[in-house]
Every structure is written in structure tokens, then in C-alpha cells.
Amino acid sequence: MTTNFRIAPSILSANFAKLGEEVDNVLASGADIVHFDVMDNHYVPNLTIGPLVCEALKKHGVTAPIDVHLMVKPVDRIIPDFAKAGATYITFHPEASEHVDRTIALIRECGCKPGLVFNPATPLDVLEYTLDKLDMVLLMSVNPGFGGQKFIPYVLDKARAVRKMINDRGLNVSLEIDGGVGPANILEVAKAGVDTFVAGSAVFGARKDTDAHGYETIIGALRSELAKA
Questions:
Q1: Residues 53/37, Cβ–Cβ less than 8 Å
Q2: Which pTM does this prediction carry?
Q3: Annotated catalytic residue: which of 24, 40, 67, 178?
Q4: Rounded Cα gap, residues 138 and 198, in angstroms
Q5: Is 80 exposed, middle or buried (CB count within 10 Å of its CB: 0-12, 13-18, 19+)?
Q6: 37 catalytic, yes or no?
Q7: Residue from 24, 37, 40, 195 carrying the catalytic annotation
Q8: Which contiguous run of DSSP H or E holds residue 118?
Q9: Please, which residues have CB within 8 angstroms of residue 40's CB and are 6 or more apart in sequence?
Q10: Mind listing the pLDDT tens digit for each residue in 107-119?
């Protein structure tokens, strides 16, 4: 069962002066997906990265899936740029789109896999009408905008609810979680039905500056916990 679990380090916590090397090292250490936190200083109170960074990593030689989480409003304008830059998944917040169906279709038309993102206190109602059109549901277990925040426990109830919806409909939709996930709680999160785990500060914060391959220990610890699920 553990082979179904995917670890997606967020480059928000990486050393941007050595980004290509950082991404190479976490992937070599057993990570599965590269997670992009795209913030616009409008929808969320922070400003991060754009399509050029995605394009640069692809040109650097990154072949792992790139999971782009758009914390921007409006979203439609930037989607084709990230698709062209090499994104695999593009996820967005329903409240950041005027027409959720149209945005999902746009992501698909651009050749990427669409997903919806739900903040901790955002209801899941829209999934009743969109789940069969998605490849991923991302649950925020912190309020978006900054890395290094503490996990909000009630999001586990949302995870169980989404997993039940996916299973009841017999869909192949990934359930991802982002925020405060580490070795201490990843097993509990997995048991709630999550299969894809964003870990930013937990992974990159464990970096040893003198050790280019200092990620095996933390990713190994995450895998070890997941093996118990």
C-alpha cells in the first residue's frame, strides 16, 4: 500500500540560490513530486514564484511531476503560462475563480491535470458538482500564505469526508494535504485517507548545509511512518 503514497516537498522552503541542486537532491532522496506554492500578495499575503521558475527547473532536467498550487486571484490568466512552463498538476481555490467549471476545463485544455484547493474553513460543497472532473483535491491544513505553520487538526475530518466521496464514486482522484505535515503526524494523516503529502519546512528544514544529500533521513522517516498505514 505504501507505494501509493507520494511525498511532494514544497520548494517554498528550499534554498533558492541553489534551487536546481536542491530539487535534484530531494528527488534523489526519494521524493515523488515537486510542489510549487504560487502566491500573488493579493489572494494571500505573500509573493513567491512564477512560471519562469517552473520553466527553469524543467530546462535544468527535472522530469518528476510538478504540482503547481495557485494562490492567486484571478487564476485563469496565469494557467496557460504554467502549462507551457511544464506544470503537471495545476490546483486552484474555487473562491479565486468566477467560473470554477471553466477554470477546470481551461487547465485540462492546456494539457495539465486540474485540482481544487480548500482552505481549512472552506466548505467542500463545490466537490458535489466537480469531483468527477478533477485529478486532485488539495486540503490546506494551515491557512495559506506562509510556510512553517502548525497543522490544524480538524482538517482530518475533511480528509475523511473527501476520501469517502472519492471512494463512493469510484474515482481515481489524488487527495493531497499541505501544511504542518511531518514524521510526527503523517501516519494519522494517511489513515484519514490522504495519499499525497506536501512537506516544505519538514524536508528542507532538515537540510544539513554541509551535506548535499541530507534529505534521505527525513524522507526515510516519513516513509517509515507511512509503512505503518
A1: no
A2: 0.94
A3: 178
A4: 10
A5: middle
A6: yes
A7: 37
A8: strand 113-118
A9: 47, 71, 72, 73
A10: 999 999 999 999 9
| DSSP SS3 for 66 | strand
What CA–CA distances, in Å, run from 179 to 9, 86, 122, 153, 197?
A: 11, 24, 15, 11, 9
Alpha-carbon span 116 to 134, nearest angstrom: 7
Q: Which residue type occupies 224? A: S
Question: Domains, the chain, ranges and CATH?
Answer: 2-226 (3.20.20.70)
User: Please, what is the angle between helix 51-60 and helix 19-28, to 10°?
Assistant: 60
Rounded alpha-carbon distances, angstroms, from residue 10 to 7, 145, 177: 10, 13, 12
The closest alpha carbon to 68, from 93, 94, 98, belongs to 93
Cα-based angle 124, 115, 87 (whole degrees, multiple of 5):
160
Query: What is the chain's Cα-based Rg?
Result: 16
- Residue 29 cell numbers, joined: 532522496
| DSSP label at residue 56 | H
Per residue in 24-53, pLDDT (tens digit) is 999 999 999 999 999 999 999 899 999 999
Contact 203, 31 (CB under 8 A): yes
* Gap between the Cα atoms of 77 and 28, Å rounded: 34
